Amino acid sequence: MAFALPVTLDSLLEGSSLHRSQRGCFSQFIQKYSAVFEQEIDDLKQNGVVINAEDPVEYFAILMHALHSGVTIWLASPHWKEHEWAQLKTEGDGLVDVYPLRLGGSTRGDSKCIITVFPLEERTDYIYVPTGGTTGKVRFVRHTVENFIIGARALLNHLSVSKLNNLCCLPLFHVSGLMQVFRALESGGQIYFLNKWKSLSEIESVIVVSEKFAISLVPSQLNEMIEDDVQVSFLQKLDFVFIGGSHLSGKLANRARELNLPLAPCYGMSETAAMVTLLKPSLFLEGNSSYGRVMEHAAIKIKDESCSETIISAKSMFLGYHSDPIRPNRSFHTGDSGFVDGSGDFNFYGRLDDRVDSGSEKFYLSDIEYVMDSMRGLIAYKLLVVDDARWGQIVHAKVQLATFFSEKDLLFQLKDSLARHKIPKEIMVVDSLTLDRPMKKTL
């Protein structure tokens, strides 16, 4: 590999960074996929592997196999539908198609998929992380192992922690879930996967008082957990509760302080290999409402007072998107509005565009519009992004339906065409609707 992992390659397949209670299951998955990586290694070296397993331990096992083999890795969601997979095949000058092997998912059709990429010949071990693009399409952010290790080291140094154990309830196809793996690998800590984050109270035996433990949550998860005394008691025992992915409301933050939860609000994104700022729990509990200081591997600049766009440069910066040429060592214009206060802490305002941050997912209204514009029974619709205490933001849809087309029909088509996090959480059927813009396809 172009950058050495902080562990031996053989230890990847032994699962030494995984909690002992899950190593038996891990070993079964390692054995299951060993033959695939042995028999298909030449094809995998050329085209890479797409991982879309639903079981997090299975996802982790395939990831360890891929890191061990030094092949290009494409991280995907097991919840993607045809709409998302179809977006990976595009047209463009200088672009080529690759046919990575898809492992871990119960998908329809061939076990291979088509992804159009900008050809890069100097290495074969890129890691591609999915994110929403400005066009509303699925895009893959191109990273290397080095980027993730740099990000992991920066966090450990920021917290003055040498070993960090991670309780993971976020998917590994999200950069916030993936980084927990590299923090464990880098620090010699362990990772414990939670199939259902609501079962946190059942794994208190995992916690060792003399060691540091962290969990990463999005505000929607935290909002639900604070309603359960058992879950609150569990979170109080942890050293760090990293919170990010969408806006942390003042109401939720104040409630967390009342409960003495060790929240560490952070700011970052797929393009920066997760967090570039972090507020330490002690400062959060004292009433600091910012997202903390910029970490050692990054720098933040605010474009100007009228725009307040946040511009990031970082040693862990991504190397372009999968269909773009490589553009290293550049600043990244985030589209986020924010400022750095007199104490040097970063404060986040919100988005400068129409991207939706819902739970741990990020997507654009154009994704939903693309599907709804093609529905024959939908006369008109409006999509609104609404702030929500649980999810951060949700999509509200007002719709006017033809007589032969019911709300049940609408939901069926949405569920068949879109990943579930993109489906409007509120739908209002109205008799008539005035459109702000014409539908691309009408009855």
Structure description:
The chain is built from 13 helices and 23 strands. 43% of the residues are buried. By secondary structure, the protein is α/β, with parallel strands linked by helices. A 7-stranded mixed beta sheet has the order 9-8-10-11-12-13-14, sandwiched between helices. A 5-stranded mixed beta sheet has the order 4-1-2-6-7. Helix content is 28%, strand content 26%. The N and C termini lie far apart (55 Å). The longest helix has 17 residues, at 23-39. The chain is globular and about 65 Å long.
Furnish the topology, listing elements before pairings.
Elements: H1 9-14, H2 23-39, H3 41-47, E1 49-51, H4 56-69, E2 73-75, H5 82-86, E3 96-98, E4 101-103, E5 115-117, E6 127-132, E7 138-143, H6 145-159, E8 165-168, H7 175-187, E9 191-193, E10 213-217, H8 219-225, H9 229-236, E11 240-243, H10 250-258, E12 263-269, E13 274-278, H11 281-285, E14 293-294, E15 298-302, E16 309-314, E17 332-340, E18 346-351, E19 355-358, E20 361-364, H12 365-372, E21 378-388, E22 392-401, H13 407-417, E23 426-429
Parallel strand pairs: 1-2, 1-4, 2-6, 8-9, 8-10, 10-11, 11-12, 22-23
Antiparallel strand pairs: 3-5, 6-7, 12-13, 13-14, 15-16, 16-17, 17-18, 19-20, 21-22
Helix pairs in contact: 2-4, 6-7
Task: Please give a handful of descriptors for the protein shown.
disordered C terminus; 443 residues; alpha/beta; single chain; seven-stranded mixed β-sheet; 13 helices; globular
